[in-house]
């Protein structure tokens, strides 16, 4: 049995990068299910529960803009980080910023606003104290207090997400009156099978994107 929530997610900018366009960042038209799951898990996640996104309501017109950002082309190797932890020295953790800095263009979404319908199920790791009501109350309380494990973002860390829980029994705000084929969209990463990417054919009907269930044949590699 699943236990659902309705969450409103908004922000001035968003970028859910298409994996087929690697040189410059280009956002999907709407957030991917895995990105929404990341926002939910930023608020509340335990090994005892697993989140599933069912619907995404698009409340504002889909608009893009182009920006340029400074990005770092490299990262500190894991071995260097481990060595610093063992020695207690931070001398090797610095990056040569001027050498590694790159300026890249990005096509991002502007003024986004969504209502997300999602639910969680209990996993085999749930214990006797892991009741659905307990986790639902924790999630709602954390959202209302603005608590999270890390700051939820809209695709990249600099695009913070504003979130608010809605009454699950109340009708959400009206979505945009638009229908379009969104093409193939990233569904999630299959961590159990060599971290393969999973995709589905997304479609927005009258402003609502319906996400297939995890075991649906619509999800493909």
Automatic annotation (TrEMBL):
<comment type="function">
    <text>CRISPR (clustered regularly interspaced short palindromic repeat) is an adaptive immune system that provides protection against mobile genetic elements (viruses, transposable elements and conjugative plasmids). CRISPR clusters contain spacers, sequences complementary to antecedent mobile elements, and target invading nucleic acids. CRISPR clusters are transcribed and processed into CRISPR RNA (crRNA).</text>
</comment>
<keyword id="KW-0540">Nuclease</keyword>
<dbReference type="InterPro" id="IPR013422">
    <property type="entry name" value="CRISPR-assoc_prot_Cas5_N"/>
</dbReference>
<dbReference type="GO" id="GO:0043571">
    <property type="term" value="P:maintenance of CRISPR repeat elements"/>
</dbReference>
<dbReference type="InterPro" id="IPR010155">
    <property type="entry name" value="CRISPR-assoc_prot_Cas5d"/>
</dbReference>
<keyword id="KW-0051">Antiviral defense</keyword>
<dbReference type="GO" id="GO:0016787">
    <property type="term" value="F:hydrolase activity"/>
</dbReference>
<protein>
    <recommendedName>
        <fullName>pre-crRNA processing endonuclease</fullName>
        <ecNumber>3.1.-.-</ecNumber>
    </recommendedName>
</protein>
<keyword id="KW-0694">RNA-binding</keyword>
<keyword id="KW-0255">Endonuclease</keyword>
<dbReference type="InterPro" id="IPR021124">
    <property type="entry name" value="CRISPR-assoc_prot_Cas5"/>
</dbReference>
<comment type="similarity">
    <text>Belongs to the CRISPR-associated protein Cas5 family. Subtype I-C/Dvulg subfamily.</text>
</comment>
<dbReference type="Pfam" id="PF09704">
    <property type="entry name" value="Cas_Cas5d"/>
</dbReference>
<dbReference type="GO" id="GO:0003723">
    <property type="term" value="F:RNA binding"/>
</dbReference>
<keyword id="KW-0378">Hydrolase</keyword>
<dbReference type="GO" id="GO:0004519">
    <property type="term" value="F:endonuclease activity"/>
</dbReference>
<dbReference type="GO" id="GO:0051607">
    <property type="term" value="P:defense response to virus"/>
</dbReference>
